[in-house]
Write a sequence for this structure.
């Protein structure tokens, strides 16, 4: 992937840390579920997805909200990185 999943993961972890300053360092990892953990409430998840869309320059559609994308921080990071790469590929083909 052109956009490193690691960069997206770090953005997600930074967002969660900013929303939950009381979380112990390392309390949220790549394997943390965004559905079953207390890392974010439902509004926080929505804000996170909007933030990631703005940060990485992609439109996040309704399909992003499938539970499989929120099974873990890493799952969401892979999804967003894939969306970024797909958007860049579309733009490159349109420019060619």
């Amino acid at each position: 992937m052109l956009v490193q999943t690691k960069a997206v993961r770090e953005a997600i972890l930074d967002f969660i840390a900013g929303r939950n300053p009381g979380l112990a360092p390392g309390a949220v990892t790549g394997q943390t579920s965004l559905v079953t953990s207390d890392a974010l409430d439902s509004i926080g998840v929505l804000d996170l997805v909007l933030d990631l869309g703005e940060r990485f320059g992609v439109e996040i559609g309704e399909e992003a909200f499938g539970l499989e994308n929120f099974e873990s921080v890493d799952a969401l990071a892979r999804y967003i990185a894939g969306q970024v790469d797909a958007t860049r590929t579309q733009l490159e083909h349109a420019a060619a």
Q: What stands out?
A: Helices lie at 5-19, 42-56, 73-95. Residues 73-95 form the longest helix (23 residues). The mean pLDDT is 89. The CA atoms of residues 75 and 92 lie 26 Å apart.
